[in-house]
Amino acid sequence: MKELILKKIREIELEKGVEILYAVESGSRAWGFASPDSDYDIRFIYKHDLNYYLSIWEKTDVIEFMTDEDLDGSGWDIRKALLLLAKSNAPFLEWIYSPIVYFENKDFIDELRKVANECFSPVSCMYHYIGTTKNFLEVCEKEQVKLKSYFYALRTVLSGMWIVKMNSFPPVAFMELLDIAPKKIKEKVITLMDIKASQDESYLHPKEEIITNFIKETLTFNIENATSLANSKRDNFKLDEIFKKIILNK
């Protein structure tokens, strides 16, 4: 599958006249709890040539594609990516730290990760994860629950707990996140992961009170601790320098 993904990346470069700097897996495959029929969620950062950035007119800064092979692609222009990094955008930070990398300009991504650590805003990321957890809370309280919903809620609620306890951006790999959960939750979640790995996305699982209650209790914990978290200390000069270096090919 990696060869097919790399082939598609090259096709995008030729078709759109861009250079892809970094391409990774996002979503359930990157998190480590994919179902057999899960899509491949490919996320990438790209750049145009210098003339593109010298125009006074607004231009598209997103490239998207979907293929018959379940490749779901979405990429952001380097300028858009850096502006989101400046805001400590949690989904973009997850791209940067994805455990599944298809292609990378190593010098670029090493520098980007270094700046990402400096831009990390605990409070901004926390509110992102709180909001996402809330989006799944209602479905997690139903008598029949899609395991996908359980795992999305667990991932985001544990990410919030991680920020409070570790004061760092949470790991993308779900099993690393799970380390901070109580033993009984770990054991139940690992059982559910085995089930999810053998079932399609449409599978409905009987409500697990222990999981639903943990999600609700931890969400409350995250909300109570959110206001005490720090904001980012971004360096606008460094972000500008990365942008100039990339588009000028220095």
Short description:
With 250 residues, this protein is α+β, with helices and mostly antiparallel strands. The protein has helices spanning 2-16, 27-31, 50-53, 78-86, 90-96, 106-119, 122-140, 147-166, 174-178, 183-196, 209-226, 236-247, and strands at 19-26, 40-47, 62-66, 71-77, 101-104, 144-146, 204-206. The protein is globular and about 55 Å long.
Tags for this model:
alpha+beta, Beta Polymerase, domain 2, globular, 2 domains, 15% strand, 5-stranded mixed sheet, 12 helices, two-stranded antiparallel sheet, 250 residues
Q: How does CATH name the architecture of the largest domain?
A: 2-Layer Sandwich
Shape: globular
What is the β-strand count? 7
Strand order of the largest sheet: 3-4-2-1-5
- Percent helix, as a range, is 55-70%
Pfam family, one: RlaP
Organism: Flavobacterium profundi
Protein name: Nucleotidyltransferase domain-containing protein
Keywords: Transferase
Give structural notes.
- InterPro entries: NT_sf (IPR043519), RlaP (IPR018775).
- With 250 residues, this protein is of the alpha+beta class.
- The chain has 2 domains: 1-120 and 233-248, Beta Polymerase, domain 2; 122-228.
- The chain is built from 12 helices and 7 strands.
